[in-house]
Amino acid sequence: MSVLITGGAPYGEQPADILVVDGVIAAVGADAAADPRARDAEVVDAAGLVVLPGLVDLHTHLREPGREDAETVATGSAAAALGGYTAVFAMPNTDPTADTAGVVEQVLRLGEQTGLVDVHPIGAVTVGRKGQKLAELAAMATSAARVRVFSDDGDCVSDPLLMRRALEYVKAFGGVIAQHAQEPRLTQGAQMHEGEVSARLGLTGWPAVAEEAIIARDCLLTDHVGSRLHVCHLSTAGSVEVVAAAKKRGTNVTAEVTPHHLLLTDERAQGYDPVFKVNPPLRTEADVRALRTGLATGVIDIVATDHAPHASQDKETEWDNASPGMLGLQTALSVVIATMVRTGLLDWRGVARVMAEAPARIGGLTDQGRPIAAGEPANLVLLDPQASWTVRGADFASLSRNTPFEGMELPGRVVATYLRGRRTASAGVALGAES
Length: 435
Ligand SMILES: NC(=O)N[C@@H](CC(=O)O)C(=O)O
Ligand SMILES: [Zn+2]
Known about the structure:
Residues 49-236 form the Dihydroorotase catalytic domain. Helices cover 30% and strands 20% of the residues. The chain is globular. By secondary structure, the chain is of the alpha/beta class. The strands form five sheets. The chain has a six-stranded mixed beta sheet, covered by helices on one side. Strands 10-11-14-15-16 form a five-stranded parallel beta sheet. The chain has a four-stranded mixed beta sheet with strand order 4-3-1-5. The longest helix is centred in the middle third of the chain and has 18 residues, at 208-225. It has 13 helices and 20 strands. The chain has two domains: 2-50 and 376-387 and 408-429, Urease, subunit C, domain 1 (Roll), CATH 2.30.40.10; 54-363, TIM Barrel, CATH 3.20.20.140. Bound molecules: N-carbamoyl-L-aspartate and zinc ion. N-carbamoyl-L-aspartate (NCD) binds next to loops.
């Protein structure tokens, strides 16, 4: 089985043909068309398209097991493939919680059966994500799912002793703790960012310091025990400063930002439309600027979607009772193009770094986020950098509809996604494992 992708521009640079044979990039550039194996290859015309490594999402909520009305591994995988992803890390806030080898293996199997993206389960740090007792991290690490990333996402590991133990424990197998940084006491009853807008709307605020204080504490704990920390969804300018200072000091810390925090502000809460309710909350214009700069300068390592599907009965209700979270997989690349590429803050190499290479490295993957070069697995996304499209949640492969970008015109469109040489999405249609 071979595919010859002609005329596309790897990393948006010089156009170069790419020959894929048996799931592996066999040749790039002049060698590709000249290769005898190109003779019976399927030819894909990619003139005018940018070719990037398949994207890797370190923070996806697939909702299975337990909330299959909001998303399943199959529907979330389809959304991922359509968004240009070839691998996603599935957060463990499912029902039951992914806190045992059994549950993470179940998620792994569901991902394999769907076959549209590699699904890597994240294991919970504490039993039931209750923050009381460490889960069996080693059992998940040595399971078939080979879990390397652990998180109580949705909740913060707020107990400093538990956090210390978790950081110590994962050292044995090269794991990382991905912290949802939210000091629970400082955010009790919080509904949105604490600031001018929350005061005007009369909603309880979620102060920036509730995030920043946890990040500062965890960086110090990480230094103390000589471990590795990843900070989920940075949302404030102060958090960027804390991470920058820690990195300067040599702390082994990485950080992510979501597409929605790169584009939207707390002003969106004005109409009390719960589609804009999320944790951490949308912040201010100054925070958005600092997050973009932080991503451009490498203080923030990656973009992660925090794709958080919610069924309509949980989302289309009054603001106070609505579940926090937003869809992200099918809009992430376009939002990054709008906020980082069109603004000159990142080139396509930079996009490949923050959406494929670095997330794969942080998650411990050696077969994803690889360079577009001979001998590498053919995980690729072809995108049209000139196209634009209007977001319609109703058209998404996701089972839920809670996109905060509804009706927006966004730049850049995914034309095709390849997982180990097999097309998983093409012209807006996700393709099952059999095709
Ligand atoms: N981001 C959210 O607002 N919600 C996430 C949990 C999380 O990522 O914190 C969810 O699971 O719905
Ligand atoms: Zn979270």
